[in-house]
Design goal:
- The chain is of the alpha/beta class.
- The chain is built from 14 helices and 14 strands.
- It has helices at 17-23, 36-49, 64-73, 89-100, 118-127, 151-160, 182-185, 211-216, 229-236, 247-263, 265-286, 313-324, 350-366, 375-386; strands spanning 6-7, 56-60, 81-86, 104-109, 133-139, 141-142, 147-148, 166-170, 189-193, 205-209, 302-306, 326-327, 329-330, 339-343.
- Helix content is 41%, strand content 15%.
Length: 395
């Protein structure tokens, strides 16, 4: 098919030319004497994306799932009690990972379309007077449903009863795209991946870990080897790694972090909010509902959109790919076939975000879904045309 493929899934995202150029280099010696001059400043600058001064960054050659495993195994022991909630495919996978490591997981089932049940967390934490719960898990952005949760509220619930548990945040599809403040919110382990807001290919699990969580590793009994923080700490301090790192991805990460900091994180968040709102305006003009049940849950990185009853959302995705060379994202698990997803994160501007709206509109019309051709595009255009690039995310 002539022309290019248009990628609008919630990860991997489009890789900017600047980052591609940074990675278009020859292989290098990861033990060269000048390698630390590159890596040590990189560790420090990645912390800025997490908005952390006190935490320590770890860069593992892995996916976000590897980041989950690194965080869990370095801080907890089999049998430790963990409080978690499942409200989508990926938050449930995080729970599954904990269970496989023999943690005692109190997993709350939440309606898909909502996020972390802060009030339930508060009740459970208040009753845990013996502090048996060792960790609280929260997925900031549930990629499967397009739902964002209130992490500061989770921290307030913990602080209200002076609960000492560690706070884990899955920020794989939020960090570097949606506001995240590790130190201010008291997050102990924050996990992200290279292929989302960091605008890189898949292959890096990017973590930031508090001093409290680092101290917990001394008593953690979960088996670990490849993901051992201790090995990383001993070598990272001198700018090296305990095994061969993904050097080309690290070069790309340097360029990605530079781009994020040059734009300014607040501007990055505002841009994502604006692109997401354009998609939401389009869905409303189509007469379709988001999976996210209310504006408080709306994600600024991915929108999951229900199709009318009797239609298959995943067929919309397949048809858009076959007919228009457009990659949208399927719906998963409980809502499989009931919706489709548009990823709107990473390297993205006004004309780019109109592409998946246009393609989804044509694909739905082709399949007989009763929408007015041009309605979603027009709504998004009007919003983008009449709003400032400096629009800020509502408090």
């Amino acid at each position: 098919m002539p022309g290019r493929n248009f990628l609008f899934i919630p990860g991997p995202t489009n890789v900017p030319e600047r980052i591609l150029n940074a990675m278009h280099i020859s292989q290098e010696d990861m033990r060269a004497i000048d390698f630390p001059a590159f890596t040590i400043p990189l560790f420090q600058d990645v912390k800025k994306v997490f908005k952390s001064k006190d935490g320590q960054v770890f860069l593992f050659p892995a996916s976000g799932t590897g980041g989950w495993e690194a965080g869990i195994t370095n801080t907890l022991s089999p049998g430790d009690k963990v409080l978690a909630s499942g409200f989508g495919h990926f938050s449930n996978l995080f729970i599954d990972l904990c269970q496989r490591h023999k943690l005692d997981v109190e997993a709350l089932e939440v309606d898909w379309g909502e996020g972390v049940p802060v009030e339930k967390y508060a009740e459970i934490l208040a009753k845990d007077t013996k502090h048996e719960i060792k960790a609280v898990l929260a997925t900031q952005n549930e990629t499967a449903t397009g739902v964002t949760s209130d992490i500061p509220a989770v921290r307030r619930a913990m602080d209200a009863v002076k609960h000492p548990a560690l706070l884990f945040v899955d920020g794989v599809s939020s960090i570097a795209s949606i506001d995240f403040r590790m130190d201010e919110w008291g997050v102990d382990v924050a996990i992200s991946g290279s292929q989302k807001g960091f605008m890189l290919p898949t292959g890096l699990a990017i973590l930031c870990v508090s001093q409290k969580a680092l101290a917990a590793r001394k008593d953690a009994k979960c088996p670990r080897c490849f993901f051992d923080f201790e090995d990383m700490i001993k070598t990272n301090v001198n700018g090296y790694f305990p095994y061969t790192p993904a050097t080309i991805l690290l070069r790309g990460l340097r360029a990605a972090v530079d781009m994020l900091l040059e734009e300014g994180l607040e501007n990055v968040f505002a841009r994502h909010h604006r692109m997401a709102e354009a998609v939401r305006r389009a869905a409303s003009a189509w007469g379709l509902k988001l999976v996210a049940k209310a504006p408080r849950w709306h994600s600024d990185t991915v929108s999951a959109i229900y199709v009318p009853e009797g239609f298959d959302g995943n067929e919309v995705v397949r048809h858009a790919y076959r007919r228009y060379n457009l990659a949208l994202s399927v719906s998963l698990a409980k809502i499989a076939g009931k919706a489709f997803r548009i990823g709107h994160l990473g390297d993205l501007n006004e004309l780019m975000v109109l592409t998946p709206i246009t393609g989804a509109e044509m694909a739905m019309k082709d399949l007989g879904i009763p929408i007015e051709l041009g309605s979603g595009v027009a709504a998004a255009q009007e919003y983008l045309r009449t709003t400032s690039k400096d629009v800020r995310v509502p408090a």
